[in-house]
Specification:
The chain has 367 residues and is an alpha/beta fold. The chain is built from 13 helices and 13 strands. The strands form three sheets. The protein has a seven-stranded parallel β-sheet. Strands 8-9-10 form a three-stranded parallel β-sheet, sandwiched between helices.
């Protein structure tokens, strides 16, 4: 069984890239095909891996401004020569699901989400795009064409794997396909339980509008509670302008600092709808409870009343009421951490390897 991996693009270090790294650990001799690869922005671990890029990599500004070449991406994905592989595993939230494999090859797609800017967030994507009015007026026509291609590309997948029940529902709605849920890998074992907890709440990640950090900032302004926010992103300056004196922005932090924050916070605040949501699991791996909006991947990872607590509306008043009644002493750090270990990267690797082997065995019986 000769295996290849395909990933949308290597231009940032996020949850999707953690999935790719775990797959590379399982299939150590398999090459990874990707549209573009920016060595300066991603983990150095990829420098020791076999990375094969598309023709977009060679375009002027093809790496630095890869978003400019959106209309070329379907063709770039289809242009990969995968004819020598028996199994192709795509790690997709956009174009890698659209690869073309040989007729007797098995294509397994680990879907992080159906493409956000084509389906769930297309209207907000255009509103929040920092481009000229002319581009924003013509872009819907481009997205309509890409949406048609994306729907057809989903038909090329033999087995869909969703990273949460939330994404499983989206795959069913937009692609009309069934899927198997395999939760993504989280490095839970690098976190420990501490006895001495700080006097602050924590939130963070990539600071983008859909993650609703504005809701958290507004709530903590009103309550006057201490909040620390880590991470960077396009919403950083706007959030900073909103914030009162009890809110501290930490910007980009190293892994050691992040671990300390998770281990010493009162609780982690998770106000958004995520496909899965790695940061809440990291907080729980440190034994800290999570206060989360009760939608999305949080429903797969948080046990209400045991590892965290949910609030029901994305309004500052609702989050404020939850915080006022929140009692961290009611939660047992050992129970929280033990639950988080169910999402460890070793569990993901085993589950994916088992799924691939069983799917390959079943696929061969159909040939």
């Amino acid at each position: 069984m000769k295996v290849a991996l395909v990933h949308d693009h290597l231009t940032q270090d996020g949850g999707a890239e953690k999935v790719l790294q775990a797959l590379q650990d399982v299939y150590t001799t398999s090459p990874t095909y990707t549209l573009v690869y920016d060595k300066k922005k991603v983990n150095k671990i990829y420098q020791s891996r076999d990375i094969r890029t598309s023709f977009i990599q060679k375009f002027p500004f093809g790496v630095r401004k890869f978003e400019w070449f959106l209309v070329f991406m379907p063709a770039a994905a289809e242009n990969f020569d995968l004819s020598e592989y028996d199994v192709v595993i795509s790690s997709a939230s956009a174009f890698s699901k659209g690869i073309i494999t040989k007729p007797d090859a098995l294509h397994i797609c680990y879907c992080h989400t159906p493409t956000r800017y084509l389906w769930t967030d297309s209207i907000n994507y255009i509103k929040e795009l920092r481009q000229s009015p002319i581009i924003k007026r013509t872009l819907p026509l481009v997205l309509t064409k890409l949406r048609m291609w994306d729907r057809l590309a989903a038909e090329r997948v033999n087995v869909f794997v969703a990273n949460s029940r939330e994404v499983q529902k989206r795959i069913k709605k937009y692609y009309r396909r069934e899927s198997i849920v395999v939760f993504p890998p989280v490095e839970t074992k690098k976190f420990q339980i501490r006895q001495n907890i700080g006097n602050f709440y924590l939130t963070g990640g990539r600071l983008v509008p859909y993650k609703r950090f504005d809701l958290t900032v507004k709530t903590f302004n009103r309550l006057g509670l201490k909040l620390k926010i880590f991470g960077e992103g396009p919403a950083f300056q706007e959030l900073r302008k909103m914030a009162g004196p009890t809110i501290e922005f930490l910007g980009k932090i190293d892994e050691e600092a992040k671990i300390e924050l998770f281990e010493t916070c009162i609780a982690f605040i998770h106000p958004q709808i995520e496909d899965f949501g790695i940061t809440p699991v990291e907080a729980m791996a440190a034994g800290r409870p999570v206060i989360a909006f009760n939608r999305g991947g949080a429903l797969d990872t948080i046990i209400d009343g045991k590892t965290g607590i949910f609030f029901n509306e994305q309004e500052w008043e609702t989050l404020a009421d939850t915080l006022i009644h929140f009692k961290p002493e009611n939660f047992k750090p050992e129970d929280i951490r033990n639950h988080a270990l169910n999402f460890d990267e070793t569990v993901f690797k085993k589950n994916m390897a088992d799924l691939v082997n069983k799917s390959w065995e079943k696929w061969q019986n159909t040939l």
